């Protein structure tokens, strides 16, 4: 059995989606970051009337992440990724390897994805930025005062994520989570992004919070500075998850 990942991707599309209009292999296999245990990330466009879903399975011993959608479903997924400022599906179609392209369906999807990527994410908005500034200001106080190692590490994670969100928003750059957070952060701002990541790594290794405090404070200064007194938010009846900033 041929275990080349690209050949495996072609076989799973042929076996499970013989009527696919488009199929794109994305992720580490295409970007050159793949390891022996890397999974296959497959976006599959199916005819109208089908389901839009995500599924994880194992095929020929390899884990496969399927992102299956109709045309309408893909438009919805693109809209969600724009709202969350992550552009996951857009990146898959824009950078992935086309395996199936019936009547130009994959190329049309790629063109839409590339247009979204060129446009960039929408700004967070003043209320969301202020809430994140307030939350980060409070978290930096917690980080300075923390004596418990577990609390310090937990707060450091919040500081990194919130500062990264503010920095990416400042540059109108896409953000990410997990392994995509450092990648997107360094794309957005190589110098300040590296300072945040180095500060977080140093705290994890040595328990020294100062480099992370300095790096996050520099991001705060970039977007308006610390925010404590004067922060006020009127309850609107809806929790906007992108704007949550939990205090102590």
Tell me what the structure shows.
The protein is of the alpha+beta class and 248 residues long. It has two domains: 5-119, Beta Polymerase, domain 2 (2-Layer Sandwich), CATH 3.30.460.10; 126-243, no CATH class. It is 54% helix and 12% strand. The chain contains ten helices and five strands, in the order αβαβββααβαααααα. Strands 3-4-2-1-5 form a five-stranded mixed beta sheet, with helices on both faces. Strand 3 (53-59) and strand 4 (62-69) form a beta hairpin. The chain is elongated and about 60 Å long. The N and C termini lie far apart (56 Å). 36% of the residues are buried. Residues 241-248 have low confidence and may be disordered.
